Amino acid sequence: MTRLKSLRSGHASIAAVLSFVWAITFGALRDFVWTDIHNGLIDLRGFSRATRLIVLLGFALIFILAVLLLFGNVWRMHSTLISMPTLMGMAGRGRLVPLVLVPVTYLLLALAWAFALNGLLHSHWLARAGILILYLLAGLERIAVLIPEVTYSVTPPYELLLRGGLLLCVPVFYALRWRRPERPALEFIVLLALVTSSLAITQLRDFEDWQLSGTPLLLSNLESDLLNFRLLASPLLLLIGIDVANFTRKLAGWTASVVHERLPAQVPGTPTNLVFRAALGISTAWIILIVLVAWHLTISISELVQRLAASSWGTELPAYAGALGMVALLGAWVWLAPPRHGFEAAEPEALQVPKAERWGWDEEALARTVERAAPLLVLAYLATQLLAFVLLLLAGAFPYASFARGAIELADTASSQFTTTWHLLVYAVALCVAIWLRRRFADRPTRLALALYLGAFSLMGLWLQASSPSNLLQGLFWQGPQPLDFWWTLLIGVAVVYWLVRRRLTPDRSARLFFAMLVVLLLRQTSFIESPFSPLFGFAGVGFLVFGICWDVLTGGTWVNTGSTSLPRVGRVFLYVGYTLLTVALITWSLGTHDLGSLSTLTGGAADAGFGSFGRPLLYTVTLVMVLGPHRRGADGAENAERPEMGEGRA
Question: pTM to 2 decimals?
Fold first, then answer.
């Protein structure tokens, strides 16, 4: 009998191991990758065949360029290199431009304008006016250079009239079509023809000047146009930081689900006495959680000792105190803002459930709320840069006007000197909105989730600004991830010990604490979460950006698949494709020309700033929700007061 029991136990162990291996391979592809793509894929059903073909061609072009970005030297290897005539390029190789990249960039700009103009053709009148003003200002900048030549009879007047007429054809077409029924395919073809004709005339004229003078001013003009539009691409690059945070969150959630659902519930060889098991609560998931927390806490303490040995107590203790201040500030905010019945919309009868059973948390619903609110928050955060973009376009369109110089100076002030003050104002307003939402909509799960994120975003930003050098709390400034990592790990360790001592480390709590510990561990691996391909390839920032763009295209249906009277669904699809094409065009030009300054901003600086400013508050909020959230009150009730297992409701 003993041998038969051990044989059955061995078969069960083998089955558990095989199930675990299956979960971390094929299960990962199904739950972690395919589910997100399936739920977020842009839906083209309901569109005409021609409209679907145009959109699919736009997406195909984005993916082709994304692949070429991974092999940036392909432009330089298969094309003649010409020197940039101005000092706008980088020194050395950065001033050599592949000739084939010039028409490719013009084509991408024409397609981006055509998609964007077509997307807003039947939208709200403010959106139509905004896109037309941007298009006219960008076109007038190319026409303004002809005014002196026409004045001194160097250029015939008809060329100026031809360029101006082609430029005005777009607003005329808007006036003729915006009240008519939507015909996206036909309207896109007409707009593409108008935009391409306007750009082609400029390109042909610059090419003729190049042949006559021998100086490729065409390159400097194109570089000047792209320099302005880099500010316009900043919102998408910052939003990639949200995608990185969601990637981290989903990876941690999927790993926690696999561990708690696929591994055996009891550690093989542990006593089967019910009293002993009830006293110690031994299970595979709990052992992994305790070992993981203890191991990482040991590493954090050793790093603290090393920093103290390399520096001094007077230097390191204030730094760790600054990190503790931010963790305590965020923890107090989450602790004081509990939801009544979770972040998911509850049925009316759910409000009749006893209070001890209504203190649940759902980080997936929190993340969905953040994804919907992030674009508006990013636009508010970048308001000064977008204002600088408009002012630069205005100064370029009217270079001989009296206000041109003042517009340039104001743009420089708005984008550099006033940026910090504006960010502080955004943090303050976001905190006020968060407090108002928490007080006014305590029974609205979505609004409360938004309040949690806005509060964490603003408190984190204000604390980092206050503790930065030359500010009020500069003595609490810290560098590196070690101080924050130490306090996050210690917080999770205290929570584990607390629930162990109280014998309340239930499977649900252990799953949530395990999830929080995985998020903390992934935050230390910034090179991986910023570039998931880095362990396999050496793409670094470019690979991270390609991953972010492709993943955003594959899972961006949350905003695109919905429509409204102010912006129909087909318009959102075209606008999204056009904006993404513009961003890819900017990155392709910077990478092809080896403009290292712009390339570092586009591939690393902006996305890293987005992750630091918008992604980390989401991860910190989710971590605190998992540690402090479950049953903050009424936790001493019955075991059935627990929420469902962590794997349920996730991917």
Answer: 0.75
